[in-house]
Specification:
Layout: H1 2-63, H2 68-81, E1 86-92, E2 97-103, H3 107-112, E3 114-116, E4 128-132, E5 150-154, E6 159-170, E7 185-192, E8 202-210
Parallel strand pairs: 2-3, 4-7
Antiparallel strand pairs: 1-2, 1-5, 3-4, 5-6, 6-8, 7-8
Helix pairs in contact: 1-2
Length: 212
């Protein structure tokens, strides 16, 4: 009877901890499910943007000989009609990386692709084009980039090819990496280290020069 009494006394505490354990497991499963959903949503929507971009390119190529100015205008309308307006596509062939380039670096843009950093040159302009991306989604593979790798920026107005000059790690407040250095330049920016948890203390910078 004494043993049974002790078991009855312990029962509420044991039940409490069991419920806590279940809630923790449910919370962890919920966070994991949300992360997977966000990742899939970004990939699916980026596929949709790529399809729109390819449609615009195909239309442009079919009629370019006769209606170049009208066609560029039509293609631009297609680009702007997307919920997240896109500027083109960034390809790094050796890394098998191909991601849509969107306008701006807010949460919406970086969730669905790479973002053009406001205040930097646009593709096709003389200056330094700044492009940002998340290290844990579209720029995950950037950790394997090397000097002399090729980076392509494809837009509805033209194709641009860059070759990597430098790769470095800087502090977040080192915005000088986006300065115009007097020649057409492309600068890729993401957080660093790639596999750290929580806010990243540094930035991973890749700079490339335009190949004329």
């Amino acid at each position: 009877m004494a043993t049974r009494g002790r078991e009855i006394c312990r029962s509420p505490v044991t039940t409490h901890w069991r419920w806590m354990e279940r809630l923790l497991w449910l919370g962890a499963a919920g966070l994991l499910g949300f992360s997977v959903f966000m990742l899939l949503e970004g990939k699916i929507y980026e596929f949709y943007l790529k399809s729109q971009f390819e449609d615009a390119l195909n239309e442009q190529q079919l009629k370019a000989a006769q209606h170049t100015s009208e066609l560029l205008s039509s293609a631009s309308v297609i680009a702007r009609s997307a919920p997240e307006p896109y500027l083109g596509r960034v390809d790094i062939p050796r890394l098998d990386l191909s991601v849509m380039l969107l306008d701006g670096v807010d949460d919406g843009a970086l969730r669905f692709g790479l973002g053009h950093i406001p205040g930097t040159a646009m593709p096709g302009e003389v200056g330094n084009i700044g492009i940002a991306g998340h290290r844990d989604t579209f720029f995950r593979g950037l950790s394997g980039i090397r000097k002399d790798d090729e980076i392509r920026v494809k837009t509805l107005q033209g194709d641009y090819r860059y070759v990597v000059d430098t790769i470095r790690i800087v502090n977040p407040d080192d915005v000088g990496v986006l300065d115009d250095i007097g020649r057409p330049t492309l600068t890729l920016v993401t957080c660093y280290p790639f596999y750290s948890i929580g806010p990243a203390p540094q930035r991973f910078i890749v700079q490339a020069s335009l190949v004329r």
